[in-house]
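Per-record layout

source: Onychostoma macrolepis
name: RRM domain-containing protein
length: 105
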Amino acid sequence: MTGKTQTSNITNKTDPRSLNSRVFIGNLNTAVVKKTDIELIFAKYGKITGCSVHKGFAFVQYACERNARLAVAGENTRVLAGQTLVVNTPVMCQWYGLEWCMPVC
């Protein structure tokens, strides 16, 4: 055992409280950036309860909504692995009509 906390691969897309505490990370170079990288970067904003990585994007589920807002403010437009990230809440993506940042599974 390494002493690391394991996070779930599941991010709840139907519970309103969970939706508000989730962060979408788009334009992600998933050929280079892995789940552990995402967890390390985003853990500084609060407790992560789930993280799912898909081709080109990821979701991070926080324990509370405030942590998600801090992550969006701190990481949106960050350059990672040569690509500028789009970091937002799925709720805001839906508000702006950005269907590509909603869960596909």
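summary: Residues 1-5, 95-100 have pLDDT under 50 and may be disordered. The helical segments are 16-20, 35-42, 65-75, 90-95.
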